[in-house]
Amino acid sequence: MQYITRERFEKIVKGKDKIDLEELVMVIENEFGYSVKLEEKNGGDFSEIQKRKMTDLIFSNEGVLKQLSESSKESDDDYIDDEEEFMRLIKEAAGNGSEI
Fold first, then answer.
1. CA 95: distance to chain centroid?
2. In this predicted model, what pLDDT tens digit does every residue of 2-43 receive, in sequence order?
3. What is the largest CA-CA distance in the chain?
4. I want to staple 46 with a disulfide (CB 3.0 to 4.6 A). Which of 29, 42, 50, 89 is the partner?
5. What is the pLDDT of residue 54?
6. How many CB atoms are closer than 10 A to CB 89?
7. Using H for helix, E for strand and C for coil, what is the string for 46-100?
8. Which DSSP symbol is given to 39?
9. Which residue has the higher pLDDT, 18 or 46?
């Protein structure tokens, strides 16, 4: 088991009352030669490696590439621009033109 003496640790942190988490990580990395990456236990963030893998998977998927290509060809006329047009479309869909 690797360890660091209290005396060595005190020299590194120079007698501070409070030690930042980043300082603790630095001590572990420098004194023991480990690379340390911390993430919150219940955090929803993805690591950079996970993000790269997901990006590679998404953009190597033929279906995704086809959808992106098709959506870039779509006209902006397919979108509803204002509330009035939206309400007209809702009434049309209702079929009888009644108030909603």
1. 43
2. 888 888 888 888 878 888 888 888 888 998 998 888 777 766
3. 84
4. 50
5. 86
6. 11
7. CCHHHHHHHHHHHHCCHHHHHHHHHHHHCCHHHCCCCHHHHHHHHHHHHCCCCCC
8. -
9. 18
